[in-house]
Design goal:
This protein is mostly beta strands. It has one helix at 2-18; strands at residues 26-37, 46-55, 59-69, 77-88, 96-112, 121-137, 142-153, 170-182.
Length: 183
């Protein structure tokens, strides 16, 4: 009976000791402002959003939400993205300039309101993204970030092709933001 009372806790401790320690990751919060350009964007509509990145030694996972208003040249046309990306060279510890590359996928939502004449149109589609950027840390916890990303929707809405939202549209987005790193 005595062995049974000590057996379960001893086994639990042995299993805990056998489990490898998890890698420590930093968390980086990054609000940003920018512009969308090229591809199917009209002019350079403003973009804003934020991301949270979970960073190990040199690889990270970024979750980002962003919005571009006036995307198709109308004040009632918007593009919203919610993406996840793998970030390489993301955020090595310490101060200084650190380049990074990212690739990911997620949701790309287009909303166009036509007013009284036509019915409003909204699509939720799968999209990919590729990007490059720089983090420049002035302290161990605070830095400036800048990047350029390419977004491309992979689903075609229709064969009409009259509106950019009906085609496989793509665009670039350049942003500047602040990094707030938590250890």
């Amino acid at each position: 009976m005595r062995i049974r009372t000590w057996l379960a806790p001893a086994l639990a401790l042995a299993l805990l000791a056998a489990v490898p320690r998890t890698a420590q990751a930093d968390i980086v919060l990054s609000p940003f402002l920018g512009v969308s350009f090229e591809g199917d964007s009209v002019d350079t509509p403003p973009a804003f959003g934020g991301s949270v990145t979970f960073v190990g030694r040199s690889i990270g996972l970024e979750i980002e939400a962003a919005r571009s208003n006036d995307f198709f040249g109308a004040d009632t046309a918007n593009v919203t993205t919610l993406t996840a990306a793998l970030v390489a060279g993301a955020d090595l510890p310490g101060r200084g300039v650190k380049p990074y590359f990212l690739a990911g996928a997620g949701l790309l939502r287009t909303d166009v309101a036509f007013g009284e004449i036509f019915e409003d149109t909204s699509y939720n589609n799968f999209a990919i993204l590729l990007g490059v950027g720089l983090n420049a840390y002035v302290t161990d916890n605070i830095g400036i970030r800048g990047d350029v990303r390419y977004h491309r929707r992979l689903e075609r809405q229709s064969d009409v092709g009259i509106l950019p939202i009906a085609s496989n549209f793509d665009y670039f987005r350049a942003t500047v933001g602040i990094n707030i790193r938590f250890f």
